[in-house]
Amino acid sequence: MIERADAVVIGGGIIGASVAHFLTKLGYGRVALVEKSEICGGSTQYSAAHIRQHYSNEVAIRLAVRGAAMFANAEEELGGPVGFVQDGYMVIAPPEQEQAIRDVVPVQRRFGVETEILTPQEVSHRWPELDVEGIALACFERTSGYADPVATVRALVRSAQQRGLELLEGCEATAIEIERGRVGGVVTSQGTIATGVVVNAGGPWGDRIGRMVGVDHPLRFSREHEAVFEAPDGFGEIPVMSDAAQRLYFRHYGEGKVLVGEGWPKEPEPADPENYDAGTDEEHLARMVPKLVRRVPSLAATIGGEGYGGAYVTGYSGVYDITEDWYPIVGEEEVGGYYSAFGGSGHCFKLGPAIGEALASVIAGEAPEIDLSDLSGARFAAGRTFGSVWGPGNRA
Ligand SMILES: Cc1cc2nc3c(=O)[nH]c(=O)nc-3n(C[C@H](O)[C@H](O)[C@H](O)COP(=O)(O)OP(=O)(O)OC[C@H]3O[C@@H](n4cnc5c(N)ncnc54)[C@H](O)[C@@H]3O)c2cc1C
Fold it and tell me: What is the distance between the alpha carbons of residues 31 and 10, in angstroms, rounded to a whole number?
């Protein structure tokens, strides 16, 4: 157990792993990553890990564009293989949301997203597997896709360890010491680490870690379900799909399988991140599967019929840590040396590496390539919260 560090990162999910990774890349002295369970033992392990660039504000678009480039060049940027599959990403919208696509695609292009608007006929032509009934317009990003969340966190941490990162697993931060208005150390289940920099990357536990220094950013939680099914032989290429018309997302899952989950807005399913059932249930499967088959009729060959045709592979649920405006809280707080980096609100796997890179620069006293100030916790009191062209409860 180390007694002193230049920075202590609390939480070994995608955000903490990324901050630690980029701090060590910058040569920021001695960096410790404390994780109460094991790396990627929190919400990141359940992530669908879609890497999209479809956002409606500058900071998120810039982070997403940078993130997609990092995933596409993972060995160099993220320290190892991350299972990135560049199948592309498509949003399909019903008539009442057609305008959202028309409004936001030009903004995305301005900030570097390679995205194109497609008619339903063009979608059918390119992906005959998809039924476009009820769809008025689509947009497609060629350079997006999905990754393996556990492999990503491992790559970030393992490569940082080669640069001297101290990884402390099974080590819970229980208090943060403050000396003259600045952080002075982190008290853990394995002893105290003296430090002048603490990064709260505690994900769904970020609110309670913040309260250790009197910084109270409340979170809401929602249990989110995903399921994986066998696809029929010869199942064609499809991009990562956001079906706004049915509030459904789905994509390939490795070879010959399909992953499906429910989109927002919807009623949150409250859950205690410390103690919830990480499985899924029939109620969710029964809601998702008919929608999936409606959009991809060829899947009826495996999942149609009694008991989903025996094609059910697995199902699980993770917890979203939702901030007031569905955007993460990133940056230094009024306690000097204490940085928030949590509140991913169900969409920060893809943004994690770019957040980590920019925040590491801020901590090291360098100007980050992407200005994170819009994400600061001060935005709530200042009334500078985020919205979405897709309406409340959406994160794009
Ligand atoms: C079902 C689901 C699907 C998702 N799909 C997508 C998607 O397609 N694309 C996307 O971009 N995002 C997606 N997300 C969101 C994304 O996965 C999360 O925003 C992101 O993984 C959160 O990472 P994190 O590092 O903030 O939190 P976590 O991964 O939860 O990491 C926090 C870590 O902190 C540790 N910790 C907590 N308290 C302490 C303490 N006191 N001491 C030490 N350690 C502590 C925890 O054990 C945990 O490992 C999804 C999320 C879920 C649940």
Answer: 11
